[in-house]
Amino acid sequence: MTATVVVCCVMCGRTALADKADHHCRPNLSPADLERLQREAARPKLGSIFDLRQPRRRLLPAPTVVSVSAPGRLSGLARTVREANVGERNSTLHWAACRAGEMVTEGALRDPWEAARSLAEAAEHAGLGGPEIAATIRSGFKASGVVL
Which of 9, 67, 84, 115 is the most exposed place for a label (fewest CB within 10 A)? Predict the structure, then answer.
């Protein structure tokens, strides 16, 4: 005589003999529950998600950190200011001046006046006026700890 094995607990996956009503995690199973468990055990099961033999996903390589030179970063800041939309030009200039001031503070740029000139030319190209440009650049540099 062959004993029928039934999954006793879906959560833990343990099995028990079907003819015993005393299962470890479900004491006193009723005959109806025992019959239901036997039917479920007889059904073909899909494998776990890891058994489906699908090709493994390739992991993307770690992002490469590109080191951009300080003059390259400064020209990028100037380009951003030059291309700023009307209504955003002054705030964009202030943002760029803060970033340029941080570059001076970090030691990436040695001459803060070179950065200020580059940003001022870009701001003039964008259509800002002289006094407004000087005040905004000065404010951005000051926020980064650089006094012009």
Answer: 67
pTM attached to this predicted model: 0.56
Rounded Cα distance between 6 and 17, Å, is 6
- Burial letters 55-78, b for 16+ CB under 10 A, else e: eeeeeeeeeeeeeeebeebbeebb
CA distances from 138 to 74, 112, 135 (A): 16, 10, 5
Taking alpha carbons only, the member of 63, 66, 68, 146 closest to residue 110 is 146
For the chain, give the mean pLDDT.
77
Nearest Cα residue to 122 out of 136, 108, 133 = 133
Query: Distance between alpha carbon 73 and the CA centroid of its chain, in Å?
Result: 23
Other beta carbons within 10 Å of 108: 16
What is d(CA 121, CA 78) in angstroms, rounded to the nearest whole number? 8
The rounded distance, in Å, linking the Cα atoms of 42 and 53 is: 23
Higher pLDDT, 40 or 92: 92
**What is the helix (H) or strand (E) element at residue 6, kind and residue range?**
strand 5-7
